[in-house]
Structure formats: C-alpha cells, structure tokens
Design brief:
Elements lengths: L1 H8 L13 H11 L5 E5 L3 H9 L2 E6 L5 H7 L8 E5 L2 H7 L6 E6 L7 H9 L3 E9 L5 H12 L3 E7 L2 E6 L16 H4 L9 H8 L3 H11 L1
Parallel strand pairs: 1-2, 1-4, 2-3, 4-5
Antiparallel strand pairs: 5-7, 6-7
C-alpha cells in the first residue's frame, strides 16, 4: 500500500485541474480504512478516488468532470475500475435522488465548496454513516467547510479523530442519528452551548417569543 500511495503522490501536478490531496492525507485514509472498507462514497474525484479504488470493495463517486478529474482517473494505470461506480452529475442533483442501499463505512466530502452546497452534501450523507464509520471533510481551511467542521467537533454524533493538513477525520459515535426530517435544534450541542441559558428550554423559548414587548422590556430592565 505504501508503494501505491507513493505512485499516486508522484502523479504530475497537472494530473487534473480540480485540486488534489497531499500524501499525508492519503496515508491517513489508509491508516483509518485499510482492510475495513466495504461500502464507501465520496463527492469530488481525483487522487483520493484512485486510492479508494484499492481500499474499498464498493465505492460511489458523486462528481462532475471538473478539471477533467473523472477522465484523468479513468485513464490512469493506477485505477481499479472494478470497485468504483461514478454518479456523474452535480451533487446538488445526484445526492437527493440517490438511495444508499448499505450503511457507509467511510464518506469523504470534497464536492462543491460554495455555500450552501457542503451543508447539502452533509445532510444527504450523514444518516447513512454506520456507527464506527468515518466522515472526512476536506479543505476545512475554506470558511464554508470550516463552519461544518466547527459544528461537528461539538456534535454528539461525531468524534474528531485527527486533522491532517486541511482534512478532518471524524468517527461516527453511538449517539442516535439526528432526525433529518425534524428540527430539534435545541438538542444539538453547538446550539445548547451558545444559546443563552434562560432560553435553552424549547418551551421557555416559545414563551419568550410570544411574550408582549412591554413585559420583555420590563424583564430586561430588571436584569440590567
């Protein structure tokens, strides 16, 4: 596997035009996944896809041929096509329409980075990550990705394992999945730690929201 990583790392800088991950991140992917990956997915395509084609038995790639990334992977002598399925479409369209048949051992998020697209990718992927599975966020130096990173660091569903360069590795905990069809913002650690204590209860929040303005002002004066 070390030889494969080196061959992938040695590909020319212009292997494709959509950016690439470092050898350190490739090694981290192997460290966390070697011999344990059956069902995996990623958004975006590139050097990581070449590696996943050898690490995973069933890998889904949601991407467009931006910078000829898919074309470069398909034509590479390092590519193992037998393990890969390409879903070629913008992830804004493909992920909402896709049905994951098996829980995911690893999900690598590296698709479009403009807001709100990383959040959309997370939304359609997180319910399918199995307990003990990994969620990997690439390019956390970009503010839109960093926002998700900060949220997940405090979320009960995930444990931060490490950050390698600009890539964060999270492990799915045994916490119940946050219902993707409900709300429950008051249950999430990121909100609970920041929302004023007097409003942390859902019911207190609703009571304050319905409170007459004169009463709100009177309470504010008492607290000042």
């Amino acid at each position: 596997m070390n030889e494969l990583i080196q061959k992938i790392a040695d590909l020319p800088p212009d292997f494709h035009g959509a950016g690439s991950i470092s050898p350190r991140v490739l090694r981290a992917l192997v460290r966390h996944g070697d011999g344990k990956l059956i069902n995996t997915m990623e958004t975006g395509c590139g050097r990581s896809t070449l590696l996943f084609s050898h690490l995973s038995k069933n890998h889904k790639v949601f991407a467009v041929d931006d910078g000829n990334s898919i074309s470069a992977v398909r034509s590479s002598h390092l590519f193992n096509s037998s393990t890969i399925e390409f879903i070629e479409s913008p992830t804004q369209l493909s992920l909402p329409a896709y049905t994951f048949e098996n829980p995911l051992d690893m999900a690598f998020i590296d698709g479009p980075h403009g807001y709100p697209f990383p959040d959309l990718e997370y939304y359609y992927v997180y319910p399918h990550i199995k307990e003990g599975g990994l969620l990997i966020l690439d390019d956390i130096d970009i503010p839109t990705i960093y926002n998700i990173y900060n949220f997940l660091r405090e979320d009960a569903m995930f444990e931060l394992l490490e950050v390698v360069d600009d890539t964060a590795f999270f492990k799915r905990t045994s916490a119940p999945v946050h219902d993707p069809f409900a709300d429950g913002w008051w249950l999430q650690n990121y909100n609970k730690k920041r929302w004023p204590k007097r409003f942390r209860s859902k019911w207190v929040h609703l009571a304050v929201k319905c409170m007459p303005e004169k009463l709100k002002l009177a309470i504010k004066k008492l607290r000042s």
